[in-house]
Design a protein that fits this description.
single chain; 341 residues; TIM Barrel
Length: 341
């Protein structure tokens, strides 16, 4: 059995060819898609976070709105760039969203990837300390967030407060108990996957990974997952770790599906550089009739290793079409793969 959700980047463009032409469209359609996905029986609604882009950016108002309109589905991010984040304010916002959702938040975070502007985090008021890189800063922000989410007081109370304080040191409020155990780390390298395991974070692995061995993407990703689980066991955590992978998977059910994805040309891995030093491998997409799709997916070692699969959706094609995309996988592919009864 496997949890199956969707991952949306929340793109919008004023083009007449897009069904998502404004930021308001992207936000409101994201809520509608999450509600519809829950009705279909999907397990998760996840959203990518990008800054300085016509995509979803500030996740917590959206997550809170979805939490208020749904009852069961997991609500998450994949991922929040921690270079941009104030960990204490983030703990407050995440706590509020999680309480509204009744403890369903699955918060995916990461050190971030190349963005639309150069060193965008500087405009948000952050700068690495002397001798640090922006990646170091992201890891530091993460460690502060994890510490705050433990719920222990650390701030000295005012002896003459405006309102009465509880006894002892104070913490950011609202606090949501259990959220610390629902933090995921988006790892592009094997080393950061192992680091995440030692800190007790779940693992998110996307369709992009550092090319560390030259092997096919799904094999490298499967090895990363195994290294993560071994590190989790070695760290002595008593909880069961979770691992998600994301994929572009389309069951070709009709002529519209075939027109959109039948000849996508993305049926093989690609290698490129995401910056001057980092060689990356990009995983293939899957698009075929259900029987062929099932045969292809059975060869993907990383999907087999993961307990959660996130389907990346083409959100600019509109809510109705994306409901069809998700439903096709849940109904015609997942049962044959053993992901659904």
């Amino acid at each position: 059995m496997k949890k199956i959700g969707f991952l949306s980047f929340g793109h919008w463009t004023p083009s007449s060819h897009s069904a998502t032409r404004s930021a308001a469209d992207a936000l409101l359609q994201s809520i509608d898609l999450a509600v519809a996905a829950e009705e279909l029986g999907a397990d998760g609604a996840y959203f990518r976070v990008h800054h300085f882009a016509r995509q979803l950016a500030s996740p917590f108002p959206l997550l809170a709105a979805i939490g208020a309109k749904t009852q069961r589905i997991e609500i998450g991010t994949g991922v929040i760039d921690m270079r941009y984040e104030n960990p204490l304010y983030m703990a407050e916002s995440a706590g509020a969203a999680d309480l509204i959702a009744g403890g369903r938040l699955q918060l995916g975070i990461s050190r971030g990837s190349p963005e639309q502007v150069i060193d965008g985090w500087r405009y948000f008021g952050y700068q690495p300390a002397e001798g640090q890189t922006d990646a170091d800063m992201a890891l530091q922000h993460t460690e502060v967030l994890l510490d705050v989410l433990r719920g222990e007081g650390f701030a000295k109370p005012n002896p003459q407060p405006m309102f009465p304080n509880p006894p002892g040191m104070l913490r950011p409020e609202p606090y949501s108990d259990g959220l610390r155990e629902r933090i995921w780390w988006g790892a592009s390298s094997d080393a950061t996957a192992v680091w995440a395991a030692t800190l007790g974070m779940h693992l998110q692995s996307s369709t992009l990974k550092n090319d560390e061995t030259g092997e096919p993407f799904h094999i490298q990703q499967a090895k990363q997952i195994r290294a993560y689980r071994a590190a989790w066991t070695q760290a002595g955590h008593t909880r069961t770790p979770r691992v998600s992978v994301s994929r572009s998977i389309f069951a070709l059910m009709n002529d519209r599906d075939r027109a959109y994805f039948g000849a996508s040309g993305d049926d093989s891995d690609k290698v490129g550089f995401i910056d001057d030093q980092t060689r990356a491998i990009f995983g293939r997409s899957y698009a075929a009739e259900p029987d062929k799709l099932i045969a292809q997916l059975k060869q993907d070692e990383a999907i087999a290793e993961a307990d959660t699969l996130l389907l990346t959706v083409p959100n600019q094609l509109g809510v109705e079409y994306n409901v069809h995309v998700i439903e096709s996988i849940l109904k015609y592919v997942a049962p044959e793969m053993g992901w659904r009864a």
